[in-house]
From TrEMBL:
Record keywords, A-Z: Membrane, Transmembrane, Transmembrane helix
Organism: Streptomyces spectabilis
Domain VanZ-like: from-to ranges: 10-128
Transmembrane regions: 55-72, 84-103, 115-137
Name used for this protein in its record: Glycopeptide antibiotics resistance protein
Database matches in Pfam families: VanZ
Tree of life domain: Bacteria
Length: 169
């Protein structure tokens, strides 16, 4: 599972890099949005269809990381809150790295709302999938029947202890 998760994670990150870091041939570029929620308000003012496309796209861009990062980690017995915090922090850092790299790409604009929406998308995907999947995997691990032992594989008992002998001078 961990290897498959690693392959999927790398593939997803390559797609995200291609989408967000390729140069765009545009006649003009709008200014960077450094005011939180200003871009979301502008998207909402353009109508519900445009808002759904823009906001939904930003939420979904990094959302698979909410599932893939814990999958690559491979831990079943971990605090749900710690797992969420780790995953959301990693998603936020990756989103910040993408936004910072976009400053040098022609046609790409830095948008703080993308950072916020990408991070929320990672957290929502994590909450929607990971706790239930871990609980199911833990139940499956506990219910798995034990293999029958043959006579040759019978437990041998405790290891004998030898009394300590002092060293002669």
């Amino acid at each position: 599972m961990r290897a498959a998760g690693g392959v999927l994670l790398v593939a997803h990150l390559l797609v995200v890099a291609w989408i967000t870091l390729r140069p765009l041939d545009v006649p003009w570029v709008s200014a960077a949005n450094l005011e939180p929620l200003a871009g979301i308000k502008a998207d909402l003012e353009r109508g519900p269809e445009q808002a759904a496309r823009q906001i939904g796209g930003a939420l979904l861009l990094l959302a698979p990381l909410g599932v893939l990062l814990p999958l690559v980690g491979g831990r079943l017995d971990v605090s749900p809150l710690a797992s969420l915090a780790r995953t959301v922090a990693a998603g936020a850092l990756l989103s910040l790295a993408i936004e910072l790299l976009q400053t040098g790409v022609p046609g790409q604009v830095v948008d703080v709302d993308s950072l916020l929406l990408n991070t929320v998308g990672v957290g929502l995907a994590h909450l929607a999938v990971v706790p239930a999947a871990r609980a199911r995997l833990r139940r499956r691990r506990c219910v798995r029947p034990r293999a029958r032992r043959t006579r040759d594989e019978a437990p041998q008992g405790a290891t004998p202890k030898i009394p300590r002998v002092g060293i002669a001078p």
